[in-house]
Design brief:
- It is a single chain.
- The protein is an alpha+beta fold and 202 residues long.
- The protein has nine helices and four strands.
- It has two domains: 78 residues, Glutaredoxin (3-Layer(aba) Sandwich); 113 residues, Glutathione S-transferase Yfyf (Class Pi), Chain A, domain 2 (Up-down Bundle), CATH 1.20.1050.
- The chain has a four-stranded mixed sheet with strand order 2-1-3-4.
């Protein structure tokens, strides 16, 4: 079956591209702008939500970035995949956690830091949003106090999914230095060659 990933590396599609590169699978990358091309009829026939990333795996189409990566992990296995039901549950746990506890707030900080999408550019508002992340980041920092990775003492889809959300902080030069364990964990995640290859894509 052929695998196609739609989206640009500067968007949430980076998550799926990073996962595909980690797995070393053959896939087609179709750079698709989320502001324009994702709203055109041809793409809406694939994903009526008009969003990226979108994965087409043979007869299966998957729209949500976390679901895409969990699917790829299960489909292709290897060290990034959950090794049992417990690890699968934990991978889902962390994937849902980062979407509900971190992503929206971090995106707002990025928008205010860059003025993206016409949002008011304001360092005060950036600071307000980052302050809202204190609680979830403290939770993550505590979890990482005695281990290098989130699940199974190795880099897995759980780490990739969480770290891929936190990459938005790079747009505002936020390094989370107040959270030493998080900062060290991110350095391990972001130092991976597969991420560099994914970021190099259009």
């Amino acid at each position: 079956m052929s695998i196609t990933i739609y989206g640009q590396s500067g968007s949430r599609a980076l998550r799926a591209l990073w996962m595909a590169e980690e797995l070393g699978i053959d896939y087609e990358h179709v750079p698709t702008t989320f502001a324009k091309q994702a709203k055109e009829p041809e793409f809406l026939a694939i994903n009526p939500n008009g969003r990226v990333p979108t994965l087409v795996d043979g007869e299966l189409t998957v729209w949500e970035s976390m679901a895409i990566n969990l699917h790829l992990a299960r489909r292709f296995g290897g060290p990034l995949a959950p090794s049992d039901d417990t690890e699968l549950t934990l991978a889902e746990h962390w994937s849902f956690w980062v979407m509900t506890e971190v992503e929206k707030t971090l995106l707002q900080a990025m928008f205010h830091g860059t003025g993206m999408f016409g949002v008011e550019k304001s360092q005060d508002k950036v600071a307000e949003q980052l302050a809202l992340l204190d609680r979830p980041l403290a939770v993550l920092n505590d979890v990482l106090a005695d281990k290098e990775y989130l699940v199974g003492n190795r880099f897995t889809v759980a780490d990739l999914n969480v770290a891929s959300v936190m990459v938005f902080a790079e747009f505002i030069n936020e390094t989370f230095e107040a959270y030493a364990n998080v900062q060290a964990w991110l350095a391990r995640c972001y130092g991976r060659d597969a991420l560099a290859r994914a970021k190099a894509k259009p």
